[in-house]
Each structure stands twice: as C-alpha cells, then as structure tokens.
From TrEMBL:
GO terms for molecular function: serine O-acetyltransferase activity. The keyword Amino-acid biosynthesis applies. PANTHER family: SERINE ACETYLTRANSFERASE (PTHR42811). Keywords: Acyltransferase, Amino-acid biosynthesis, Repeat, Transferase. PROSITE patterns: HEXAPEP_TRANSFERASES. It catalyses: L-serine + acetyl-CoA = O-acetyl-L-serine + CoA. GO terms for biological process: cysteine biosynthetic process from serine. The keyword Signal does not apply. Belongs to the transferase hexapeptide repeat family. It comes from the Bacteria. It is an enzyme of class 2 (transferase). Residues 14-119 form the Serine acetyltransferase N-terminal domain. This is Serine acetyltransferase.
Length: 272
C-alpha cells in the first residue's frame, strides 16, 4: 500500500522568533497583552501580522482598516512581486544595524521607519498594477501617519534600514539599491520642474547620513558614504565618502559595507 503523503510543517525561524519574543513581552508586561496578541499572536504568519499592522496604522475614515488590510494581504501574497521577501530583508536589516533594536518584534510593533517602508511597498505594488489612485492614497496616509513621503513609483531595493525615520522624502523616479541605510531627514529629490527622470539612483550598500540631500538624476556608487548634512549634486564613484555643501569626495568609504557598519565618523587629522 502506498504511503499517504503528508504536508511538511513549514519552518519559519523569523516568525517563530517573533512569536517567542511576543510571548516573553506579555509575560514581562501584561498590560501589553491585548495589543501584542492582536498584532502578532493572533496571526498565522509574518505576512498576516504585517498586513494587520499596516492597516491599523494607515486606515482612515475614507478607507476602512479591513479594506486596507485586504489590499496589503494581496500585495504580500504576491510572491512574484517579492513584497514579502523585501519586508523580511528590511526587518533583518533593522535588527542587525540599529543598536536600539534588540528584538525582531520591535520594528513590526514600534518602528515607524520599518512600518512606513512596508506600507510604501504595498503602494508600489498597486502602482505597478496600474492602480495609481489607490497607490497615491497609500502615499498620502504614509506621509500623514509617519512623516515619511515615498512616491509609489520610486523603486526601493530590499534590506533598507531607515533609522529614526523622520522627514524622509524619496521622489518619483528615484532608485534605491539593496542593503541601503539612511537616517532621518534625508531627501532624494529633484532640482527643478522637469518631469522626466529627475531623481537620484542610489547604489547597493550606501550609507546616507542624517539631513543629507541628494538632488538630481545622479548616481551614488555602491558602498559609498554620504556624510550628515551634505548636499550632493554630482555623481559619486563607488566606495567613496563625500561631505559638505556642495558635497565633495573626502576619502574612501572606510570599509567594504558602510551601510552595515553604520560608521558615520569622518577621519579627523590631529593638529600639527
């Protein structure tokens, strides 16, 4: 007699760890039990919990939480689009790079940078499907809820970490590579009223410091480092550090993966 086939239980170490952390959090602080159960433990998987959290944060009287959640669920189930895979990479990036992040559940529950990027990814999925008006609604609500404005047509790679995540602006034709890190008040903007390809192209592994503005259709080479407060108006070669207003090359990137090490200190020469 042929053996009866049985489905194997899926193994998801990220989700399993988030659930373990959630149960530990409830044990430590019972007052959070209802919220933690609603946001994490009532869901079968990471994607379901993320869709719930996105809907909870950006729903409005104009569009109910249930409707937003259904849209987010569709986006996260679309494996060909890669929205869920990118969200998982973003989660791990925040956990590994942000020294204030000690548990995988923290970005999902508390970090507006992670939450805003995931809502943007839903809007980008809608944009690519031709549902521009719904994508604009998501953009509007992300801006209102989180203070972060990412155009749904912008292309953002996986493994993005935005620390503190206040006043981030990423324009319509901007491209952000994989494993990029940026701090608050970063602008990837245009330089005028042109309506063609007008925004920066950020390579893989780039670190962008707080308050930096990268303007125009320029390229920032992979694994480069942009110092805080800089205004970058010209293309930057790979693996360089730029600083100043306007920014100039001041040295090498200092390491092979600046976006991972998050080292933002420029070398300072001692006095003669």
């Amino acid at each position: 007699m042929a053996l009866q086939e049985k489905p194997l239980r899926s193994i998801d170490p990220i989700w399993d760890r988030i659930c373990e952390e959630a149960r530990a959090a409830i044990a430590q602080e019972p007052l959070l039990g209802g919220m933690v159960h609603a946001c994490i433990l009532h869901h079968a998987n990471f994607e379901g919990a993320l869709a719930f959290r996105i809907a909870e944060k950006i729903a409005s009287p104009a569009m109910s939480e249930q409707l937003v959640r259904e849209v987010a669920d569709q986006a996260l189930r679309d494996e060909e689009n890669g929205t869920a895979a990118a969200a998982r990479a973003d989660l791990v990036a925040v956990f590994e790079r942000d020294p204030a992040c000690h548990r995988l559940m923290q970005p999902l529950m508390y970090f507006k940078g992670f939450q805003a990027v995931q809502a943007y990814r839903v809007g980008h999925w809608l944009w690519n499907r031709g549902q521009q008006d719904l994508a604009y609604f998501i953009q509007m609500r992300v801006s209102e809820a989180f203070g972060i404005d990412i155009h749904p047509a912008a292309r953002v790679g996986k493994g993005l970490m935005i620390d503190h995540a206040h006043s981030i602006v990423i324009g319509e034709t901007a491209v952000v590579g994989d494993n990029v890190s940026m701090l608050h008040s970063v602008t990837l903007g245009g330089t005028g009223k042109e309506d063609d390809d007008r925004h920066p192209k950020i390579g893989d592994g780039v670190l962008i410091g707080a308050g930096a503005h990268v303007l125009g259709n320029i390229h920032i080479g992979h694994c480069s480092r942009i110092a805080a407060g800089s205004v970058v108006l010209e293309t930057v070669p790979p693996m360089k550090t730029v600083a100043g207003v306007p920014a100039r090359i001041v040295g090498e990137a200092g390491c092979s993966q600046p976006s991972v090490t998050m080292d933002q200190l420029l070398g300072v020469r001692g006095s003669d």
